[in-house]
């Protein structure tokens, strides 16, 4: 199993950073040459207040890849798809992916994704409820259909897991049902490693069972006691071992995500980048 027991940690706060905060260009260079990305939900409050200024601060940390997340202000925090693309380009970052909903507005979601230049559109939650095999087969069918529609436009459709997909029904793990009933050429999985270990599963098992099916990762360390995210090295995720086996998963993009923080999102990300450099 890929997690270990750790001591309890102090309660996390979600204190924000101000848009006017000036950060030096740290520019962490990863020994492996890996260009790490970030899921912008990590900076959700900051992006809502000042998307361009926050992206500048993220770029100063050496982050090279971006995955957006839909918000009350739209898919790109109030920016148009073209504005989001141009802002990332100007900062030397690549907008690779975005979290979206598979809903009645999915045609417009795809249109915006094409305009933004991103490669992946990732469904961030199940489009229909029901923790049973029947619903997961229904969802798989909807995912295959969405995958076909995306492929016609030059996009790649995928799904991001949480903890609940690893529950079982009639002796079958529901995530496995989803994997077994989706076309690998149409549905590209984004594996949230933190939620996998919280569910009591081993990511390496899934790399072996479904080789090459996970081109996207959410690299997220977890406080196993409180089941909340934490800074790298403070939780139960064996990051070093997972990175050693990343090729087994078919990895193309690694997005760091953190939802709770010891102080601020920016300080947590600085810690995480230093941790990865030390590996």
From TrEMBL:
Record-level Gene Ontology MF annotations: isomerase activity
Pfam assignment, any one: AP_endonuc_2
Gene3D superfamilies from the UniProt entry: Divalent-metal-dependent TIM barrel enzymes
Annotated Xylose isomerase-like TIM barrel domain residues: 57-278
Signal peptide from the UniProt entry: 1-29
Keyword Signal: yes
SUPFAM superfamilies the UniProt entry points to: Xylose isomerase-like
Keyword tags: Isomerase, Signal
InterPro entries, sorted: IolE/XylAMocC-like (IPR050312), Xyl_isomerase-like_sf (IPR036237), Xyl_isomerase-like_TIM-brl (IPR013022)
This protein's name: Xylose isomerase-like TIM barrel protein
Organism: Zobellia galactanivorans (strain DSM 12802 / CCUG 47099 / CIP 106680 / NCIMB 13871 / Dsij)
